[in-house]
Structure formats: C-alpha cells, structure tokens
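Sanity check

After download, print the first record. It should look like this:
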Amino acid sequence: MARAVARARCATVARVSEPSRTQPDPLAPLRSPSLLTEARRKAIHLAFLVLPLELLFEVLPWPRGRNQFRLLFLILVVAAIVTDLLRIHEHRFREFVRRFFGQMIREHEAFSLLGSTYLLLAALLAIEIFPRPVAATALGFTVLGDAFAAIVGKGWGRARIFGKSLEGFAACLAVCLAWGAFVSATSAMPLSVVIVGAVVASSVELLPIPLDDNLGITLFSGYAMKLMMPL
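Expected structure tokens:
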C-alpha cells in the first residue's frame, strides 16, 4: 500500500513538473552554432566602432582633421579591395582566408566584396560628404545597428517582414537611439537630429533596399541628419 502511494505521488510530481520542462528557454539561441558564428562575425564588425569614436574625439595622434581622415580611409579602402580581389581570384590566398574566416564569410560574399570593405567605403564617402559629427554618428549607426539587428534577429526573430525580423529592427533602433544620445551628449549634434538619424538608419536596415546595409545605413541616415542640421 505504501509503495502504491509513493508511486502515485511520484507520478503526480512528474505530471506537475512536465510542463515546466516544455517551457521555451529564452537563452537557447545563445547555444546555436549559427548564432555563435554570426556573433563572431559581428564582433569583428563592432571593432570598427573605433572609426566613429576617433572622428568624434581624436584620441590618437594621427589622423587629425578631414584631410588626414580622408587619407586614412582611402588607404584602408584600397587595401581592403586589393585583399578582396586576391581572395576572389587567387586560389591559395582564398584557401588561407577560408581556413581562418570561412564560416564567417557569407555565401554572397564568396565572390564579391566583404561587408567590412563596404563599411570602409562608407566611412570614406561619409567623411567626404558630411560634416564630421554627422559622419561619425552615421557610421556608429551602421556599426552598432547592423550588428545588433543581425544577432537579435537570428537568435530571437519571430515576426518577419521584408525577409527580416521586427525583433532585429527593434534592437537596431534601440542601440541607434542609445548611440545618438551618447553623441548628442558629447558633441554639438542636436538630440532631435540624431533621433531622426536613428529612425532612418533602422528603417534602412529593415527595408529591402538593393544596396549593402553598410553603405545604405551610413548614406541615408547621414543625408537625413545633414538636411536637419542648423545652418
């Protein structure tokens, strides 16, 4: 009798605890190999945050001023394009790159420019077209917004629109607003201007614009902020 009661109690506990085992784990995506690969890729992307920070604060002894930044970005763009051309056309160099970065190179980048090259090109165009605070703000939107949108969208994205997730869009907007607030607090950029820039940057990241996100986010948000800047 006692054994029967004990078995009944165990069965009851098992039935009560069973639903808890079926509850979705919000941290499960962090263990996904595809998300870990994307996170490694975006960690490299986030390293480019040094560019807008240097544009804003000029911590390093070089470069200083628009001409020196223009020269630096031009050198980096040329070096990146040459590296991409070698990767695409030289078999041994392509195998070398694949050995170290193979999983982080997307399928459409196998025989085209990498996203990092487009980001450097965006930096060069931004310093040519926009005032330095605007260029720095737009580049920050690109570096941070694109990275967080990709990671959150791949890991937790459920609601889809234009092939992307609304969760990724929300993450992009949140981090762009945070970056814009930081820039506004540490520079002469008006808060209203950076808010508009953040909204434009997040919208460009979401919309199916036939332009690499690194270029599209930088240029569209930069132009929006440039038009709103007081004369």
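If your output differs, re-run the checksum step. Summary of this record's structure: Residues 49-228 form one domain.
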